[in-house]
Design brief:
Shape: elongated
Radius of gyration: 32 Å
Helix content: 40-55%
CATH topology of the largest domain: Rossmann fold
Number of domains: 3
Number of strands: 15
Strand content: 5-15%
Distance between the termini: 48 Å
CATH superfamily of the largest domain: von Willebrand factor, type A domain
Number of helices: 18
Strand order of the largest sheet: 6-5-4-7-8-13
Structural class: alpha/beta
Largest sheet: 6 strands, mixed
CATH class of the largest domain: Alpha Beta
Length: 534
């Protein structure tokens, strides 16, 4: 059980005592006035007086709990079908940066692995990255969008230990696949150049154990047999030098077919040669011969809001209190409800300023909580409250911190609200309009990568893109429809074309991948690197 506004929960007993005290004082005053009128009136007024204070206290307590925003009972979504269990393992050692394949060995492996994921829409797929150690990035899952995202983040910097240990990845793959009783046959698809720095006997023994356990091993070779140097490039892609060993000599790397064949023969698997143009197609054909069996997967959703339960208890307590009271007031209210129609009052400027003041107070409270606890949810609440209060700079700062969360749902909401804040600043200040609209576009694209079906993010992004033609560039404030606070505007006459949508998603993928890679670097294990770090 979690609460969106914990301090309201702590204040609930105080609110209960206050409301109950006011009810007791009002009841005593009513009894005194009735006694002054006549003893019969005093007896009539005191018939149901005993239940008034407890009911009012219960209603106040339940109302305060509802305002605190309780959440719990995670929702569960089940998916199923006929599926295989496939682990994709990619060598991220520095030898994979050799450019004897276009653009290099690692990028070709990522490209073929991504195509393979697209060709297996119904199968459970996991991702392992390995170098001197093996790292499980994504467990077996039907969420292929997450698998694709992890594949795009693969980089030698993810591995804290250099070199290549093939035995380690075989052992980890066996451990992961042993815990998968559901689904069909199991397979490991391993992309590597075969330049292992562990002993061939250890790698072959681990592969043999994998085959004896019923796991199909498919090794996909990368690189050429001719020795080449390993380039070292800066973040801009400029070549700075070539990889050197501890003695300062340039390292030469080549594909080791002999080791790859020995490992495949030990496991009874299959080797896909590097010269094969369509490696993903060859792997798909091999997997097609395996047996698929029924599989059901349960996914946990975000914590379900439970405020309605406490609100219902409060409403029932008030209803019971009203139903057990006697007096002309109840009959008058019923008559008024039957004979007249009510009209809602329009909020005036004073009401709007009052709401902004309350939002600013809530933002300050949430910010203090976030600084004390460091929780991503507190930063999100602080940023959202500041956005409602109109403090856009504070909102962008807090929401930027929340956008680094590992929770995809919270990260999406933070990125979406960041786009809203940038849009509002673009409308308010013409001097930074172009910069803020560009920022809003980037944030909405990142949000769409996490939740491709989010209609509100698509709406705002389409307005931004269509109202900023490529030549000549014209900047204009974009309106939005959803809960971020902007006014609704009519939708454009036509939507994005397929080519425009593909351009949007491809442009944002690199930003999201770099963010995911930085998170993985913070989480990876720190170990001592091997002597050979390529």
């Amino acid at each position: 059980m979690r609460f969106e506004i914990p301090w309201l929960l702590w204040a609930a007993p105080l609110v209960t005592l206050l409301i109950a005290g006011l009810g007791w004082w009002s009841q005593r005053r009513r009894l005194r006035l009735a006694a002054a009128w006549s003893p019969a009136a005093r007896r009539l007024a005191g018939r149901r007086a005993g239940s008034s204070v407890p009911l009012l206290g219960l209603a106040a307590l339940a109302g305060a709990v509802a305002l605190a925003g309780p959440r719990g009972a995670r929702g569960v979504r089940e998916t199923g079908g006929l599926a295989l269990n496939v682990l994709i393992a990619v060598d991220v050692s520095r030898s994979m940066l050799a450019e004897d394949q276009n653009p290099n060995r690692l990028q070709r492996a990522i490209r073929e692995a991504s195509r393979l994921v697209q060709d297996l829409p119904a199968d459970r797929i996991g991702v392992i990255a390995f170098a001197g150690q093996s790292y499980l990035l994504a467990p077996l899952t039907l969420d292929h969008s997450a698998v694709m995202l992890y594949l795009q983040t693969l980089d030698p910097d993810l591995a804290s230990a250099g070199g290549t240990d093939l035995a380690a990845v075989f052992r980890q793959a066996a451990a992961v696949l042993q815990d998968t009783p559901e689904g069909g046959d199991r397979a490991v698809v391993l992309f590597t150049d075969g330049e292992g720095h562990d002993s061939l006997q250890a790698a072959a023994a681990a592969a043999r154990a994998l085959g004896e356990d019923g796991v199909r091993l498919i090794m996909v070779a990368q690189g050429s047999e001719l020795p080449v140097r390993i380039p070292v490039r800066d973040p801009t892609g400029t070549l700075t030098e070539y990889q050197r060993d501890a003695e300062g000599e340039e390292v030469m790397t080549a594909r080791r077919d002999a080791q790859l064949r020995a490992i495949v023969e030990a496991s009874g698997g299959l080797l896909i040669p590097a010269e094969r143009a369509d490696q993903a197609g060859a792997v798909r054909e091999e997997l097609g011969a395996l047996s698929r069996r029924p599989l059901r997967e349960r996914r946990l959703a975000d914590l379900t809001p439970l405020a309605w339960v406490a609100a219902l208890v409060s409403a029932l307590a008030l209803l019971l209190h009203t139903a057990t009271r006697r007096g002309a007031g109840l009959a008058g209210l019923g008559l008024l409800a039957l004979t007249q129609t009510g009209q809602a009052q329009r909020p005036g400027p004073g009401d709007r300023f009052a709401r902004q003041g309350r939002a600013a107070q809530a933002a300050a409270a949430f910010r203090q909580e976030a600084q004390a606890t460091g929780r991503d949810t507190s930063w999100f609440n602080a940023g959202t409250s500041a956005l409602a209060a109109g403090d856009l700079d504070a909102a962008r700062d807090a929401l930027g911190r929340a956008a680094a969360s590992l929770d995809p749902g919270l990260r999406y909401k933070a990125l979406y609200n960041l786009g809203v804040a940038a849009l509002q600043q673009a409308r308010q200040n013409a001097t930074v309009r172009e910069e803020r609209e560009a920022e809003a576009t980037a944030r909405l694209r990142q949000a769409l990568l996490l939740a491709p079906d989010a209609r509100e993010a698509k709406w705002n992004l389409e307005l931004l893109v269509r109202r900023r033609p490529p030549s000549p560039p014209q900047q204009s404030a974009a309106a939005q429809r959803p809960s971020g606070g902007a006014q609704d505007q009519p939708a454009p006459a036509s939507g994005l074309s397929r080519s425009e949508a593909d351009a949007i998603l491809s442009a944002v993928s690199q930003d999201e991948a770099s963010t995911r890679a930085s998170v993985l670097r913070r989480q990876r294990l720190r170990t001592t690197a091997n002597t050979k770090d390529w």
